[in-house]
Design brief:
355 residues; single chain
Length: 355
């Protein structure tokens, strides 16, 4: 089937922020062969290529993208018993939360805490999606990719994916591969993961929570923070968490705690959101830093602002521009830097944007 390539396609409708200019060329593909043909088409015209998924973690420049945008949306799910585990293989175009719901319904543990995260399956290994005490890296066994240089398909084992906190080898080399499918090893009948403090508190009245209990509680917590897609929510046009939680040395974290105590921002050290990052490092809460630097939930600059429910989410209220959003983001970054000496780093993919 010939490629159906369109010209000057606005990208704002393909992002949860509702921002961004047009793609010079755009095509949606639903199988490996179509992706290969699209890459060949772009190469023959020496065009840059951007691979688009669900657009829930993407900021597009107002000028758009001067090349070919390939929206990769193959569908399909397969299950295979593997000893004490069930291997679930999902194509990149599957909606992520639907997959979580299906796994929970089948009593398969491993991704229940990742419920409610918007977007498609294909993005999850790139960012090493995580929430409420789980990361996809804990269950991924392999990632099926198309090598953009050789146009060959291969399976990358988890050990070669270079997973880190909101990071992977795929994210560090964004032009190297196209993610086509991911295999996850899930555990039938296993207990859910309840190791995140906020989740544990919310489940404290449930002595033996089931996977369904954990999924429902995670969805409730996310909804309270406007971290699920809801057409009735004024905070709905966002990219979720705009900044990653900074990981610093324990000594640096101690300095920030001391600063917070001295400035009266906390009554005791336990009030400063801080988690073990392993190997002499600590993870700080970017949301806590933002609020205690003086930027309140609901802070607004015209058409963009900070979510009224979560300081870590930047929101487009309609009629704005990417330039306005980035100006706000830099203001947040600079305010935290001046107050705490910590530089926040954006979490979304920035397309055509100079940070």
């Amino acid at each position: 089937m010939p490629l159906d390539i369109a010209d000057d396609v606005p990208l704002h409708g393909y992002t949860t922020l509702g921002l961004g200019g047009p793609a010079r060329h755009f095509v949606q593909t639903d199988d490996e062969n179509a992706v290969v043909e699209a890459l060949r088409w772009a190469a023959a015209r020496t065009l840059p290529v951007f691979v688009l998924g669900g657009g829930s973690n993407l900021v597009v420049a107002d000028a758009g993208f001067p090349g070919l945008v390939i929206r990769v949306a193959p569908r399909g799910i397969a299950w295979r018993d593997s000893g004490e585990r069930v291997v679930l293989t999902a194509c990149a175009g599957e909606p992520w939360d639907d997959l979580c719901a299906t796994a929970v319904a089948r009593d398969l543990a491993g991704i229940e805490c990742l419920s409610g995260i918007p977007g498609l399956v294909g993005a999850t290994p790139i960012q090493n999606v995580g929430a409420y005490g789980q990361e996809v890296a804990e269950t991924i066994t392999s990632v099926r990719v198309l090598d953009r240089a050789t146009l060959t398909v291969r399976d990358v084992p988890a050990a070669a994916c270079g997973f880190g906190y909101r990071d992977s080898a795929f994210r560090r080399a964004p032009d190297r591969h196209v993610v086509l499918a991911i295999s996850f090893a899930l555990h039938p009948g296993a207990a859910p993961t309840v190791r995140y403090k906020e989740l544990a508190r919310a489940l404290s009245s449930t002595p033996r929570p089931t996977l369904a209990d954990v999924r429902a509680t995670v969805l409730s917590l996310r909804r309270q923070k406007s971290m699920v897609i809801d057409a009735a929510d004024d905070n709905r046009q966002s990219a979720g968490s705009f900044f990653t939680n900074p990981i610093v040395t324990d000594a640096e974290a101690d300095r920030i705690v001391a600063l917070a105590l001295a400035a009266g921002l906390a009554r005791d050290a336990a009030e400063v959101s801080r988690f073990s990052g392993g190997h002499g490092r600590s993870k700080l809460s970017a949301g806590w830093l933002i609020e205690h630097a003086g930027i309140a939930k609901g802070f607004r600059r015209g058409a963009v602002g900070v979510s009224t429910r979560h300081a870590l989410a930047l929101v487009h209220h309609g009629g704005g521009t990417t330039a306005e959003l980035l100006s706000l983001a830099r203001h947040v970054r600079d305010t935290v830097q001046r107050r705490f000496g910590v530089t926040l780093v954006p979490e979304p993919t920035l397309l055509g944007v100079e940070w």
